[in-house]
Amino acid sequence: QTFTESFTGLGVNSNDPIQIEARELEVRDKERVAIFRGDVNVRQQNAVLKAQNLKVFYTGGPGAKGGAQDISKLEAGGKVYVSSGDQVATGDKAVFDLKAEQLTVSGNVVLSKGPNVIQGEVLEIDMKTGQAKFRSPSRIRMLIQPKSLGKEKTPPGN
Amino acid sequence: MTAHPTTADSPAPLATRQRERARVDAVRHSRRVRRLKIVLPSVAAVIVAVIAGMVVISTFAPAIDLSALSFGGDGIVMANPRLSGHDKQNRSYEVTADRAVQSLANPKVITMEKIGARVELGDGSWATFKAVEGVFDGSSETLSLTDRITIDSSLGYQATLNGAEINLKDGVVTSADPFSLTSEKGTIEAGRLEVKDDGQTILFGDGIKMTLNPAAGNKLPKEVSSQLKDAAKTKRPRAEGAAAPAASGGEQGTGQ
């Protein structure tokens, strides 16, 4: 899939500082959830996430082994925009399952890289490999600029 | 049917009745003061790299119990009152101030200058809390702290607020002014802060900015994070629990 390698910016283990901005943050310790609301903007290096709200679920209750509180899942909603380098994915919702290291963008998803654009319903990105693929049987519409194919090794198609 | 001779004792002399009422008032007053408690807001550092990085959320809620601020019977001004005690989980705290002044006009209002508090958080970690000035209002059971408040903790957190309103009855802390928290794991800045349900719910408002460095070890060493959990789940120590039954028990406000 030609888009594969370009999503490497979404690798899970980069240790660079992360900036988050939002209008509001509510931490509900009992439910182990933190909710960012209002033009949420998360940046790390050249990777960016924008959404209207972002829920962060963390584990690590008092009894948790290791005791450390870790983020287990993250849900972004409301005009979600995820970008890394010249790769951009937009949709209604994005769920980052950090345990499975998988990002799922759903709801009229548009995935674009430079001039090439793919639209579909559910996009799954493996955050380890950066592999991005649309979940079958969603209807796919693809617009590929022929001249951009020159550089790609294998013709696109999934 | 025997008519009991009415052994109505002679009406208690007026003086003892008055003394009785004064005693009741005093007890009620000290019980009300004993309910004085401060819940400091817990600060949460929350992040996830959407794109990368595992981040730890930790909340930390030092509970500071001002407990009884006992004043000398007659003294209106108390020079460096010192107050120590321990909460239900036997964690000790100590509160000092340069001066505490009970206002003449309304004895329910006590102004304190340069408040300092140190609270044990269990397994050896502690938090210190400094405020320039605070006014405790006994009737509304609120403590409003003005100017800078700095919080420091052995868990590596520093926080500064400018002013905070603490409603002691329902344990709500609000600070309408910018607030910032720094720790080696990251910083949070917010325009407004509100802590409810004994630190279980924390609201940062009016725009927040947060930076996090996952590189600073996203897995807290085990014992530190358990303290955080400990601190986070610290219920506001019941003043009753903290205060020994007799006024002169656990707490002693010693004033020169």
TrEMBL record, chain B:
UniProt cross-references to Pfam families, sorted A to Z: LptC (PF06835)
Low complexity bias locations: 240-249
Transmembrane segments: 38-61
UniProt feature, compositional bias: Basic and acidic residues: 230-239
Keywords, comma-separated and alphabetical: Membrane, Transmembrane, Transmembrane helix
Domain of life, source organism: Bacteria
Residue ranges of the region described as Disordered: 1-23, 215-256
Name of this protein: LPS export ABC transporter periplasmic protein LptC
Species: Rhodobium orientis
